[in-house]
Amino acid sequence: MRDVLEHAYYIAKKDLKEYYMKPGTISWGILFPITFATAFLLRRGEYSVWAAPGLIAMTILFSATSMAGASIVFERRIGSFERLLLFPTRYVSIALGKSFGGFLFGLITSLSTLLVVYALLHAFPLNPALFTLSLLLAVIQSSSFGVLLAFAIKDPSQTMTVFNIVRFPMIFLSGVIIPINQLPAPLGALSYALPLTYSTELIRYSYTGEYSVIPPAIALAAMIAQTLVFLTITSILIKKSIP
Amino acid sequence: MSRAANPSVTGDCICRVEGLTKDYDGFRAVDNISFCVRRGEIFGFLGPNGAGKTTTIRMLCGLTKITKGKVIIDGHDLRKEGRIVKKLVGVVPDISNLYAELSCWDNLIFCGEMYGVPREERVRRAEELLKFFGLQRFRDTKFKNLSKGLKRRLTIAAALMHSPKILFLDEPSIGLDVLGKRKIWRIINELNKQGVTIFLTTHNIYEAFRLCHRIAVINRGKIIAVGTPNELRRMVAAQEIVEVSFSPFTPSVEDVLSIEGVVSAKVVDNALRLVVDDVITALDGIIDYARRKGLSINMLSLRGADAEEVFLSLLGGRNA
Description:
The complex is a heterodimer. Chain A is an all-alpha fold.
C-alpha cells in the first residue's frame, strides 16, 4: 500500500510541474469556472447565496477534470504515457497519481473560487468541518472522474470536446443552477447518475444547511463509492490499453 | 568492422526467450522465436522495417502482451513476476519520450523515484549520469529544448537511473546525424565495458555489425540466423563479390545474369557488382562474356561479402 501511495505522489508531483501551465488547463480549469461563477454571483441576493455551493462544485469539476485530462491527453499523444507502464508500479498507482495531480490543482482552484464567493457574498459555510470534507471529497471525486473519462476516450485529440460534452449538461442537470426537485421528471432522474449532483448537494448542505433531494449521508457515501469505482475502472482500462 | 568478444561475457543467459509469439487480429507479428542474451554481451536484433523487432522488445519489457511463449530475465518469469522484471531492466524506446516540460535533472530524479532508488542514491546517480552523458551544462534545461541527439542521450540516461542488469535499446541511433550516431555508439560501448548487458534492435546493418557481439537476424516475425558478425559472414561465405567495369558500355543486369556462377548483379557507379557462388567459373565466364561482346575490362576486383550483403543474402534466402 505504501508503494502505491508513494508512486502516486511522485506521478502527481511530476504532473503538476509538467502541466499546470498548459493552455487547456488554464482556460478550462481556471478561467472558465471562475468567470462563470463570478458572473452568477454578481446577481446579489438570496439566489446567489443558494447558487454559491453549486458554483464551487462546478469549479472543482472543471478544474480537476481539466488537469487530469490535459496530462493524460498530452502523454498519450506524444507517447510518454508508456513510460509510466515501464516502471515497476501498479496500475492503481497510475490512476491514483493522475487523480492526485487533478486533486491538488482542483483544490487550489476551488480555494480561489471560495475567495471570490466570500468577497462577493460575505457568507461563511454553516458547517465548516463538513464543508472542508465535502470540498476534499468533491475534488478527488472529480479528478478521478476526469482520469476515467480521459482513458475511456479512444482518440486523445477529441478529449477536450468529449469532456465538455459531458461537463456542460451537468451544470444544468446537477442542481448547480436549477434545483433538482424543480427539473422535469426524466431529467431529474438523470441527475442521479451524475457525480456533480452529489458534490453539489453535499457542499450546499454544509454551506447553507439545505439540500434538494439527496440527504448528506447518502451524498457522502455516494461520492466515496464513485471515487473508488472510477479509480478501479481506470486501473482496468490502463491494463487493457496494453496491446 | 565487427567487434571483439567482450571478456566479461559469461555463458549464462540473462534473458532467455522461448517460443515467443505475438498475434494481432489474425496477423502474426512475431512467430515462435527463441534466443538467449548472454550476461555482459551486446546482443543485436537486426531486421528490416516491420520484421517484428519493436514488437519483440515491447513484449520483453511488458509494453505488449505476450500471445504465447516464455521470457525469463535474470531467473524471473516476465508473465508471473512482471514488476520484479521491470526493476531489472532499463528500456529506451525508439522515440525519446521523456517529459517535455521537466528539466534534465527533474526527468532523471522522477525516473529514480519511480524505480524506488533511495533519495541520496538518486541524487548521486543523476549527477553521475549527467556527467557520463556530457549533459552537465543542460541540467536545468527543459527536455523539449534539447537537440535530438541530447534527447536521445538523456533518454538512455533515464533508463539507467536504477542501474538495471540489462538495457533494452530500440533503434538507439534512429534519426541522428553521423556525429550523434557515433556518440551514441561510444556510449553503448562504454556502458557495456562497465558490465551492462545490452539488447538492441536496429535496421542499421552497419550499427549491428559494429556494436554487437552477437546478432539475431529477424524477418517477417521469424529469426532466420543468430551468430557473431563473423559467424553470419561465414554463413554466406560461399558467396563472393566481384566488381567489374567494362567499356565502351556497361551491360545490363539481365544480360550478365546469364554468366555462369553469377547469382545476382546490380549496377553501382557505372560498374557491375556481382554476387558469385563459384569465383573461378564466374571469372572465366566474365572474361568470355567480354570477349563475345567486344568489351574491355577496365577494372576487376574480388572481395568477401560486407555486412549489407550478408544481411541481404540472409533475407534473400527467405524470400525477403
